[in-house]
Specification:
By secondary structure, this protein is of the alpha/beta class. About 30% of the residues are buried. It has 19 helices and 15 strands. The protein starts with a strand and ends in a 9-residue tail after the last helix. A hairpin with a 4-residue loop joins β3 and β4. α14 packs antiparallel against α15, α14 runs antiparallel to α19 and α15 runs parallel beside α18. A seven-stranded mixed beta sheet has the order 3-4-5-8-9-6-7.
């Protein structure tokens, strides 16, 4: 129905129904009055098999009229007469089919309209002879942001398939306008989907991008065909009959506005604004979340591994432990705190230019594993060097040397955080201002480490001692070596593109 609001008229329900009501009102029809004088007796809901729907309404004289609308291919064969200049004549669908093709090539959605006088209060099971009333052509122009979203999907290696119940010519015209598909690969008709064998359908579904006159059961077959080729499929839908396809796909996406409750229950995600661009933005956000998760793993693992190596080497060679168990816990605490900014990192440049990851692909690529190993070794070596320097060169006591080792590990973490913000991009390509929690976390960590080193209460709990400025300079210089090492690894051993593996 049409809802009149201060800012204009809105459609509550199916957009096609709203368009037809709008045409009727603009033509001078009194919808509210007509509903009162022609009460509905029966209704035949739209079915994908028949591609038609009908209502039976009582006329003021007591007779009943069946009003039918549906796809022209299905409805026109049932039309036997047409009213021309007030005279009923036999109906010839040939000129109308030619006109239909012309409208469809313009991207119009076409509905055929017909009626019939019948006896009784219910719609008969077999369609009666109908009188052709005309064609209703309408266009649903895509939102401006859809083209940009489709271009972004193409860059990201995401194949977009257009699946519709519209006429093939309409679907092709709209698809070409949006940049979906190519002239070399024709539109696939729903009838072909239903009759093709699974290997044949898989071949066609892999290369075709536009599918027209598709019934809900055809969607299920398309999902199966695409999955048989190793594709990860996200299927959108809104109807009750879409539920099997939504359930079968790896990611079922139901429409939040126009979707039925059955479709919403079967889906994995709900698109609250029914906007394709929102779905693409969700892909962007998902990639960024996943990317930040990998960043956190690559950041945290070297610290834990480095600490373990320090203790392991000391035990194996019978050396004094450069760090005590309680100090290990302290470093782990600061590591977890310092990894927090990585969860708030903005999306890296070029992330949507990378191909989708295979489901079988490991979380960490070998280049990232190598980065973890080398940073762990660097932390181990630098920690022992600082411990030896404090004990042998500076003649510091054991507690002071251990405090210097803790400061070294924390300093390496601080410096390592900067190259870790870009999993693929070098440091100059990562903005220092886009992360709102980066600098607060860095300053808080520095303050906590200062308290660990100089506050008497912390000294008594952690076994730490004050260290002088010269020691800090040596520690910071040694810890800063992690930055050029990681940046060199990014340059010479960049993470690979999944599509090229």
């Amino acid at each position: 129905q049409l809802v009149y609001k201060p800012h204009g008229v809105e459609v509550d329900g199916d957009p096609t129904e709203g368009a037809l009501l709008t045409v009727a009102i603009k033509s001078g029809g009194k919808i509210a009055d007509w509903v009162k004088t022609h009460p509905r007796l029966d209704v035949l809901p739209f079915e994908s098999a028949s591609q038609m729907m009908a209502t039976l309404n009582q006329n003021p004289d007591g007779s009943a009229t069946l009003w039918v609308k549906g796809s022209a291919e299905k409805l026109l064969p049932h039309c036997k007469t047409v009213e021309m200049d007030g005279t009923m004549t036999p109906f010839d669908q040939t000129p109308f089919l030619a006109h239909l093709d012309d409208l469809a090539r313009q991207g119009m959605r076409i509905l055929a309209l017909a009626s019939a006088k019948i006896d009784g209060k219910t719609i008969p099971g077999k369609p009666p002879a109908l009188t052709f009333l005309g064609l209703a052509a309408m266009i649903d122009p895509p939102r401006p942001e859809v083209r940009d979203s489709l271009a972004l999907c193409k860059r990201a290696g995401i194949k977009v398939k257009m699946i519709t119940g519209d006429h093939p010519a309409t679907a092709t015209a709209i698809g070409r306008d949006l940049g979906i598909g190519s002239a070399e690969v024709p539109c696939v008709n729903g009838r072909e989907i239903g009759t093709a064998s699974m290997p044949e359908l898989a071949e066609r579904a892999e290369h075709a991008s536009i599918f027209a006159r598709v019934a809900p059961e055809h969607k299920f077959r398309l999902v199966e065909a695409l999955q048989s080729r190793g594709n990860v499929v996200a299927m959108t839908g809104d109807g009750v009959n879409d539920a099997p396809a939504l359930k079968r796909a790896e990611i079922g996406v139901a429409m939040g506005k126009s979707g039925t409750e059955v479709a919403k229950e079967a889906a994995d995600m709900l698109l609250v604004d029914d906007n394709f661009a929102t779905l693409v933005r969700a892909v962007e956000e998902g990639r960024n979340v996943f990317n930040n998760l990998i960043k956190s793993m690559v950041y945290i693992l070297p610290t834990n591994t480095g600490q373990g190596l320090v203790i392991l080497v000391a035990i194996l060679f019978g050396l004094r432990l450069p760090i005590t168990p309680v100090q290990v816990l302290w470093v782990n605490l600061l590591t977890a705190f310092l990894s927090l900014p990585l969860a708030f990192e903005a999306m890296e440049q070029g992330l949507m230019d990378r191909s989708p990851r295979s489901a079988a692909r490991p979380l960490l690529e070998w280049q990232l594993i190598l980065r973890i190993v080398l940073v762990s070794i660097l932390m181990t070596i630098v920690s022992f060097v600082i411990f030896w320097y404090e004990r042998r060169v500076m003649s510091a006591d054991l507690e002071t040397a251990r405090t210097a080792v803790v400061a070294t590990m924390v300093a390496i973490e601080l410096f390592f955080l900067f190259p870790s913000r870009g999993l693929y991009n070098a440091m100059p390509g990562v903005s220092p201002t886009l992360n709102p929690v980066l600098w607060p976390c860095l300053l808080a960590t520095a303050a906590l480490q200062a308290a660990f080193t100089y506050v008497p209460v912390m000294q008594s709990i952690m076994g730490s001692r004050p260290i002088d400025l010269d020691a800090w300079l040596v520690i910071l210089a040694a810890a800063a070596t992690v930055i050029p090492m990681v940046e060199t690894l990014k340059r010479w051993l960049p993470a690979s593109d999944p599509a090229k593996d």
